[in-house]
Records
---
Amino acid sequence: MKLAARVEQVTPSLTLAISAKAKAMKAEGIDVLNFSVGEPDFDTPKHIVAAAKEALDEGKTRYGPAAGEQKLRQLIAKSLSQQTSLSYQAENIIVTNGGKQSLYNLMMATIEAGDEVIIPAPYWVSYPEMVKLAEGNPVIVPTYGDTGYKITPELLRQSITSKTKLFILNSPSNPTGMVYSPDEIRALAKVIVEAGIYVVADEIYCKIIYDDAKHLSIAAAHPESYKYTFISSGFAKAYAMTGWRLGYLAGDTQAIKSLTRIQGHSTSNVCTFAQYGAIAALENSQECVEEMRLAFAKRREVMYEMLSNISGISCIKPDGAFYMYVNIGKLGITSVDFCNALLEDKQIAGVPGIAFGNDDHIRLSYATDLGTIETGMKRLEEFVRSHL
């Protein structure tokens, strides 16, 4: 069978591949320590689960509006309005099958053949592939440790051409965990407004930040940036709801109507009773989010301290999310070879940095228990020592 050319342009997800290999080894009884998974290790809070069960009992099992349940859209709009001090209404929101679909729908709605999309590297693995599927051209802009792996206004301005349609901004970042400061966001917003290009702010980790880091949405960073900004987020990370597949996109009402048409011909509505779980997540106390954030903060401290004491590798302390982006450049080995050997020799699963655009790094998730972190970092130290 001859498949469409677009299929050949898409790179398989290395994060999913490594995770699958680790799970297969574990199923064989091998003591694998998995630091590759980008999801909380907590159970979904009980009140959220109870709300979905109640919705099932009440027969909320039929088709719903393609853009999402009206009450959920209203609650998302209210939450965003409180976070940004901007006026979001239900009409500005589409509920999607995970944050990933919100981004994919946006690419399909905004990008035409030949359009350029600026993506700072390191980047989340799916950004370039989504752009390719929409027949656009990913413009990868490398960033480095000395700037906290953040794109500067100067770099952004230099990357914009007459073909630029969209800029992807991820803060807090996957894979680096870095958070752009409010001043940095304001400076980027100024460039966006001056150039008149769209920006999608992937804010899926915005509730998971530490120390003095502060989250400012680029939508609220400039008097005119609201009209150029789409906000992508969801419930997976902050509420431990990865398998629920509940995301959303916020933006201009006409654009949201267009995205709803696309979704109406692909997946239609998100699972109806699952949306009632999301309603409960927003309507009730946010204490469950804070409990998980505090647990991540403690794990971050332990993993960072142990990594910092391993000679031959280095990392910057992350401001948010639950990842360490570890520089292995001094070892003279590719990130794929490093991760494969690490899994085979020490039964530690990490993600090669090449998946995120940097072959001299690996990503380790600390969304796991302290015992696993402590044991894993000791094994990692033994592995690195053997390769020095």
---
Amino acid sequence: MLRLGFPVVGVADLDRAAAFWAAALHLQVSEEWASPSWRTLTGPGGDRVLGLMHSASPPEPRPRLHLDLLVDTTDEQEAEVARLGSLGATLSDWDGYPAEPDFVVLADPDGNVFCVVDLSRAPSSEAVGGGA
């Protein structure tokens, strides 16, 4: 039976990406599921949560698929955006925010965009161009 696995992010620097995403999401880098072109991040129970694959292509400025990281409050969103910034994420120059967005668009150290979504304000009103 076919089933959905886990998201995979293409990155230029596997070690840097593994360090960032492991710290960002409180995950572990699995030695069992590693190769020169691949890293797997696992959760507390050892479940595979996120894959990182070496990619020579640049990140897409407006990807059709991206990660949404969820928080429950605006205060938590602000704190997580600051924490992710301290780990190397940057605010994306996003032009598609609605008037009162529930999300903040960031980029990981490789330039892959992702969102931090405040569930207390979700969903955003109609976004011009949608979320990330």
